[in-house]
Design goal:
The complex is a heterotrimer of chains A (487), B (424) and C (531). Chain B is an alpha/beta fold and 424 residues long. Chain B has helices at residues 7-12, 37-42, 49-60, 68-75, 82-87, 95-108, 117-126, 162-166, 171-183, 200-205, 208-225, 235-247, 259-268, 329-337, 362-365, 367-383, 394-407, 416-423, and strands at residues 147-148, 156-158, 188-190, 229-232, 255-258, 281-284, 303-307, 311-315, 342-343, 388-391, 412-415. In chain C, a hairpin with a 5-residue loop joins strand 8 and strand 9 (183-186). Chain C is α+β, with helices and mostly antiparallel strands and 531 residues long. The chains are: A alpha+beta (487), B alpha/beta (424), C alpha+beta (531).
């Protein structure tokens, strides 16, 4: 049987494509990874099909590249590194399998996007934690697996949050349901018994969920996952704290994080705030001219049994803090309304995706560090930009405290016009090489996409060795997204 | 009692290792939370009370013979009882009693430390542990006009103890103590040359027979002297005569007091007036033998029984000695009464006090360990800003002074008696 | 078995004669711990051939390399308070007593983490970080539990899970000597720019470090770890009173905390209320505790029994569902809100605040017991000598309820016939992280290993709970590296793995990959191949 026929037998003829145009869409993205065309795109509908595809890939030694989000892709992790690969596009698996109000969690398949999930959760009085205005095609599971930071650090206990338990098909084709999800029963039987696939702490003396996090699909393919949700806000108060300089906002962030005050809590530079608020390039330019250089966004979400009480006291506590720090939280700035922003934050990005609104193109540099080092990195990247003639004013900055403030996600958004080659070349250099400089200064590229994998592992040769050992266990024939990370 | 008596406890030691620390409820500063000097210095679990339970059980079961490490673990221990307090904060077992029995078994089996032998030989020949002649005992009180209880009667017997009797550097403290009592009008006398060792230090080394012997002799001599109260400035003698004699069935029929207890009465009763200022910032070191080890002995003769299926209780109920009822407040009251004196507490105090390092035969056999232990205590005293460390036991005082001399630390060392004397 | 002279010298050359011993007396103090009688049939587990006291990572590494050269098994531990710490599977095993590695290396106050060595205990770290307004969560095993042991190597659930996380959730970095002798540093620890993240680059090797439980030394030695710290609203030093330590407690609960001891009419109400309190995001501590009748352990068993006999029998019933909640707040407004919310929940689930259990003295004791785990050792060991846990689990309340139901059914006959002691409800049930990742549940019981009936009965009971075809089959894998799991004896991984998605097959491969010469003692981890 030909390979194509075999694959069609697994997924159904209508779910396999070798159309050149379609293959072209998967052969590159908005990152700078080399273009590599896959052989096929297959779209399985359930875990059994995924397992069969993986088994087939083992037999034929065909690389598989898992994809769950829709385009545009930005990171390069969904573009094959090697020729002859098959894209295993999980977007057809779109079921919201369960919404559990008591345990505040949802169980979704990989094709479910935030927009789809939030509307269903709202009916149950719940809300999914999100990264900052994800694109409408972003897969919930994709986001969690990538360890994208959520915007509510007080709720972010651990870097893998909000992901809970997952059903994983490893590179061998074996399936494992992690944490509380494992056992002799089907998931439905578990539900009947009261189990909720909630505790992600690892089934045995290893944690399968951590091994697939940040792995860019090189260890296993997730066919469903539970995620923690919070109560839907019945009301909220959002504040914008403007500043000429970033340092006072860092200090304020530390204070807020220490006492766990605030739900949404992050910093943006004026440009990024403008990109969120406005939808057109022209309007963004107008706004950015009047917005302050830096803004801290903090919100108090009212939910639970005493929503007003919660918001009321938190707001009052913020005002007390503000007075002692001599800062002034505002509900409006020239050009910006906190209420408007609050609505924007509550849902995925409207089209066009906020990062593409200014110039049509955007590439990000991001890494983990601690808040106190942010000013250093802001200076460092500005210097790099200057030396490479990239206009600093076209750079967005997004600082997201994570893991309850023990570290932070530092993100620089390099906006550009994709059609302008010399601009693109500059950006490419910044993303691929300039970021190396930031790594040398202590930026931890915990999610090493594309060229970052070349330097992210510097000084971590033992980590490389161990990751390769894990790869040999969970994907001995190396068929899952080969060439990514250090694998 | 024998080693086998404690097999129940050996089996039930869980290896919680609480014996290595002061009770967790008493932790205050993380540099000063260790309780057991032995395991703090030597690290091996065998050096802890838990380790002794393990060793004793293995020994009883024939799994291990005597060996040098075995004996090191047994004897490199001040028998200070910190482990006992900590263990009993979570358990109903007796680590210190077990360790005492273990030493006695070692001695019975001839497993003794060479450094201890001359002391015991002297005790047997000369009635003292100081390797001095009996004939020289009493010289400390030379020219003091005080009753000789071998010839006269008095209400109170002042027992100096071997250390004060023979240590020329410390003898003045005993003199001062006695003088304070006399000048307060106390009807007090001494035994002079006839004073004998209490036997307590020998017992601690494992020589149970010596304690019995001296307890019996002491009891007879004191009954003959007809005294009503014994006062001693030595904490070790105090603990021996008050607690150990009772333990071995030789309870004295008279009141046994440490000099601080008597002084406290005299001060409260207005018989001693503290007038002169003592402008010093001091801290008080609780001697083990005045504090946790000085809790009155509790006799119990009963059996273990069970309730609720498996809960271990006793019939009749057994009161465990957990270190709470030693003498802690009295010396503090005295110090706080001294005009202009500023009193500051260390972090490990009362039943959780860190040992001075001197007890259990350690000073004689392992002097560097004794100094090491005292060094930590001095560090603790300095950390709270004390200019002086005050104790109520000559063994503590001596070891602190030796340590300061060796380490060059700047800290004054006093006995409570000395500060009271300054204030008269 | 003994080490050859050559093997001994090779180890002694690394560590110095002072810190290695093959003396029998020394060795026999490293194989006696609670639970041994149950698992090994006697007070002793296999005697190590030598014990070593390494002082630093380099010595540990060198020792491990010697072990590889000569085929000697090693087992590291810190407090050594469980079979999982000092139980050896091998006849030729050495113990690595990490007592000398006791430094707190760094406290990053701003970024709320601390880097410690293995012998740093939970309470020592709590004492130290309180100076900076920070806190490290209580571990139920007690204040002497090792920070690294609980976060990286073993289990680590505790009374403050709801606020301060627990088990594997707080690790921000680690330095790890692998069984091959290589050293790996996880995450940012490798870069030298701070120990603030243990995940990445790429996939998180924290997933190899541990899961629900750690490897108990079965895949090397964790020589340093960075752990997450939490806000502390109390003073830097707490004043306590009471001469007998068992009766000692804070003089007063700090102003920014409030303690509530709540009784619920049914167990299920209690479980639901615990979850609801978690979801309210108000609690600093939120758990069900097996309070003894009378609410007090007293200073000793005899005193406790005397107290219990004075208790009104009707009152004893309410202890079945005693829940302790501690609210901590940064401001008076925050406290007001939290208290108001809590009282609503109490009312909703029919809870009551019995005055005798809510007087200041009881609250002070509960504060200490909850924040610092004082009293846990007293509770589980003093009463009968030993304790055990029915299969414990971390999961949703639904799972926990089923677990409790099964545990009660199985334990019932053994309570009735006096084989085991039940005091109070015997449930330890803290909620995790505002009830976002479930709760922890254990049904504890106490037995006397030196009472033949109690021992036999307990063995029989355990046999039922670890029977893969028994009542717990559908609920969770028992022990899972925690409790008294000792694989050569109770074969948990081997018998339960195939029922639970074959997790054991992966774990064995991990072991084989990390430890090709099988020198890290696997007794409380997993062998590469079942014997």
């Amino acid at each position: 049987m030909t390979e194509e026929k075999k694959l069609k037998e697994i997924v159904g003829a209508g779910n396999l494509s070798h159309d050149q145009a379609i293959l072209g869409e998967y052969s590159e993205d908005l990152s700078f990874v080399p273009k590599v065309r896959p052989r096929y795109v297959v779209k399985p509908g359930n875990v059994e099909q995924v397992q069969k595809i993986v088994e087939w890939a083992n037999e034929t030694l065909t690389p598989l590249v898992p994809v769950s989000s829709g385009p545009p892709h930005f990171r390069g992790d969904t573009v094959p590194n090697v020729g002859g690969a098959v894209i295993i596009d999980l977007s057809r698996m779109k079921k919201i399998l369960r919404i559990d109000s008591f345990n505040r969690l949802a169980m979704v398949e990989p094709g479910v996007t935030f927009a789809e999930l939030q509307s269903e959760l709202a009916k149950a009085g719940l809300y999914a934690y999100m990264p900052l205005c994800p694109r409408s095609s972003k897969s919930v599971i994709g986001s969690m697996l990538e360890r994208e930071p959520i915007t509510m650090p007080a709720h972010h206990w651990d870097c893998t949050d909000p992901m809970l338990c997952a059903e994983i098909v490893f590179g061998t084709g074996d399936k494992l349901r992690g944490g509380e999800a494992a056992g002799p029963d089907t998931i439905e039987e578990q539900w009947k018994m009261g189990k909720a696939q909630m505790a992600p702490m690892g089934l045995g003396q290893f944690n399968e969920h951590r091994l697939i996090s940040g792995a860019q699909g090189t260890i296993g393919i997730v066919t469903w996952s539970t995620l923690k949700c919070r109560f839907l806000s019945k009301m909220n108060r959002t504040f914008l704290v403007p500043s000429e300089h970033i340092e006072p906002l860092i200090d304020l962030s530390y204070k807020l994080l220490r006492i766990r005050l605030g739900d949404h809590l992050f910093l943006l530079n004026g440009l990024n705030l403008a990109c969120l608020l406005a939808k057109t390039s022209g309007r963004i330019e107008e706004l950015r001219a009047i917005l302050p250089p830096w803004v801290l966004i903090v919100s108090f979400e009212g939910y639970g049994e005493l929503p007003e009480d919660k918001v009321h006291y938190q707001e009052a506590d913020l005002m007390d803090m503000a007075q002692s720090c001599q800062i002034e939280p505002k509900t409006t700035l020239a050009g910006a309304s906190a209420d408007e922003l609050s609505v924007i934050l509550s849902r995925p990005s409207e089209e066009p995706y906020w990062k593409l609104r200014l110039k049509g193109g955007c590439n990000d540099i991001f890494f983990l560090t601690t808040l106190d080092k942010i000013p250093k990195f802001v200076s460092a990247i500005s210097l790099l930009m200057c030396t490479h003639r990239y206009p600093v004013e076209n750079m967005g900055v997004y600082i997201q405290p994570v893991v309850q403030g023990t570290s932070c996600h530092c993100e620089f958004n390099l906006y550009h016009e994709p059609a302008r080659q010399n601009e693109l070349d500059n950006i490419r250099w910044m993303v691929n090489e300039g970021s190396r400089d930031l790594a040398k200064q202590g930026g931890f590229f915990s999610r090493p996409y594309g060229a970052w994998a070349d330097f992210a592992y510097t000084g971590a040769s033992e980590a490389v060795a161990m990751q390769r050992k894990m790869k040999k266990i969970f994907d001995p024939k190396g068929i899952l997204n080969p060439g990514k990370l250090c694998l | 009692m024998s080693l086998e008596t404690y097999k129940h406890d050996m089996l039930r030691c869980t290896r919680c290792s609480y014996c290595k620390w002061i009770p967790f409820e008493n932790f205050r500063k993380s540099e000063f939370i260790k309780g057991c000097p032995s395991v703090a210095k030597y690290h091996w679990h065998a050096y802890s009370a838990g380790g002794k339970f393990n060793m004793a059980l293995s020994f009883l079961e024939g799994r291990i013979p005597y060996s040098e490490p075995f004996l090191n673990a047994v004897y490199k221990c001040q028998m200070d009882g910190s482990c006992d307090v900590s263990c009993k904060s979570v358990q109903d077992i007796e680590p210190l009693q077990l360790m005492q029995e273990l030493r006695m078994r070692c001695v019975e089996d001839g497993q003794v430390i060479p450094a201890h032998t001359p002391m015991i030989d002297c005790l047997r020949k000369e009635d003292n542990m100081m390797q001095r002649l009996k004939a020289d005992r009493g010289k400390w009180a030379k020219s003091l006009d005080v009753k000789d209880l071998t010839k006269e009667k008095a209400e109170v017997y002042f027992h100096a103890g071997c250390k004060y009797s023979f240590d020329e550097g410390l003898g003045h403290v005993a003199r001062d103590g006695l003088t304070l009592l006399r000048e307060a009008g106390v009807d007090v006398g001494i035994m002079g040359r006839a004073e004998m060792c209490c036997g307590g230090r020998a017992y601690e080394l494992g020589y149970g027979g010596e304690l019995m012997k001296f307890a019996s002799r002491q009891k007879k001599a004191l009954e003959k002297a007809g005294v009503k109260t014994i006062v001693t400035p030595c904490s070790h003698c105090y603990q021996t005569m008050k607690v150990l004699y009772d333990k071995v069935g030789q309870k004295l029929g008279m009141e046994v007091l440490h000099i601080t207890e008597y002084l406290d009465r005299l001060i409260s009763g207005g018989k001693i007036k503290l007038r002169k200022p003592v402008p010093l910032t001091v801290t008080y070191h609780d001697p083990c033998h005045l504090g946790r080890l000085a809790e009155p002995w509790v006799h119990w003769n009963g059996k273990e029984t069970k309730v609720l299926g498996q809960m271990i209780v006793h019939d009749p109920p057994k009161k465990f000695r957990r270190g709470a009822y030693g003498v802690y407040d009295v010396p503090r009251n005295i110090l706080n009464s001294l005009p202009k004196l500023k009193f500051v507490e260390m972090y490990r105090i009362r039943a959780s006090a860190w040992c001075c390092g001197s007890g259990g035969g350690v000073k004689e056999a392992y002097p560097e360990f004794a100094i090491w232990t005292a060094t930590d205590r001095i560090k603790e005293a300095k950390s709270i800003g004390a200019e002086a460390i005050v104790s109520a036991c000559p063994w503590c005082t001596q070891n602190f002074r030796d340590t300061i001399k060796e380490t060059g630390e700047k800290l004054k060392v006093f006995d409570v008696i000395e500060l009271v004397q300054k204030s008269i | 078995m003994e080490l050859t002279e050559r093997e001994y010298r090779a180890l002694e050359d690394i560590i110095g004669a002072e810190y290695i011993s093959k003396d029998l007396a020394i060795r026999d103090t490293y194989n006696q711990v609670w639970g041994n009688k149950l698992v090994f049939g006697e007070k002793w587990s296999p005697r190590p051939v030598a014990v070593l006291l390494p002082g630093n990572t380099e010595e540990v590494q060198a020792i491990v390399k010697v072990c590889n050269r000569y085929g000697i098994q090693f087992k590291p531990f810190s407090s050594g308070f469980e079979i999982t710490a000092i139980g050896l599977v091998s006849e030729k095993g050495i113990m690595l007593d990490l007592k000398r590695m006791d430094r707190i290396l760094e406290i990053d106050v701003k970024n709320m983490h601390a880097v410690v060595e293995p012998y740093v205990s939970v309470h020592r770290l709590q004492l130290e970080v309180a100076k900076y307004g920070l806190y490290y969560g209580a571990v139920a095993a007690g204040p002497s539990a090792g920070v690294i042991a609980s976060s990286c190597c073993h289990a680590g659930s505790g009374q403050t899970n709801v606020f301060a996380g627990a088990i594997e959730r707080n690790v921000l970095g680690a330095e790890w000597v692998l069984p091959t002798g290589e050293i790996i540093k996880l995450g940012t620890a490798a870069s030298g720019d701070g120990w603030f993240s243990a995940d990445g680059p790429g996939l998180s090797l924290r997933g190899v470090l541990r899961g629900h439980c750690g490897a108990n030394g079965g895949h090397g030695v964790i020589t340093k770890a960075s752990v997450k710290l939490y806000p502390w609203y109390g003073p830097s030093e707490l004043e306590r009173s009471g001469e007998i330590p068992a009766l000692r407690a804070v003089k007063k609960v700090p102003d920014q905390y409030k303690v509530f001891v709540i009784s619920f009419p049914t167990q299920d109400n209690g479980f639901d209320a615990l979850a609801e309190i978690g979801k309210a995001e108000i609690a600093y501590s939120d758990y069900q505790i097996p309070l003894p009748p009378g609410g007090s352990l007293c200073e000793g068993n005899d005193e406790m029994w005397e107290n219990m006999q004075k208790l009104d029998p009707a009152a004893a019933k309410v202890f079945a569902t005693m829940v302790v909640v501690i609210l901590g707040a940064n401001s008076s407004r925050e406290m007001e809100y939290r208290e108001k919310y809590l009282l609503k929940i109490i009312e909703k689930f029919g809870g009551i605040l019995l005055p005798p259990l809510n007087d200041p003295m009881v609250h002070a004791g509960m504060f200490d017991a909850s924040m610092f785990s004082f009293g846990s050792v007293r509770h589980v060991f003093r009463l009968t000598s030993d304790f055990f846990i029915n299969p414990c689990a971390d999961g949703s309340e639904g799972l926990c309820k089923n677990l409790h139901k099964a545990a009660k059914e199985v334990m019932g006959p053994y309570w009735s016939n006096g084989t085991i002691l039940q005091v109070g409800s015997a449930i330890f049930h803290p909620v995790y992280e505002n009830y976002t990742v479930g709760s922890h549940h254990e049904d504890m019981y106490m037995y006397d290993p030196y009472d033949p009936d109690s021992l036999e009965g307990t063995r029989e009971l355990i046999g039922k709970t670890v029977d893969p075809n028994g009542k717990f089959r559908r609920l969770c894998v028992p022990c899972l590296g925690g409790g008294l799991q000792f694989e050569p004896v109770n074969h948990i991984h081997e018998t339960w793995g195939p029922i639970y998605d074959n997790y054991d097959a992966w774990q064995r491969q991990i072991k084989a990959a990390l430890d090709p010469n099988n020198v890290a003692d696997w007794g409380c981890y997993i062998p590469p191949v079942y014997p």
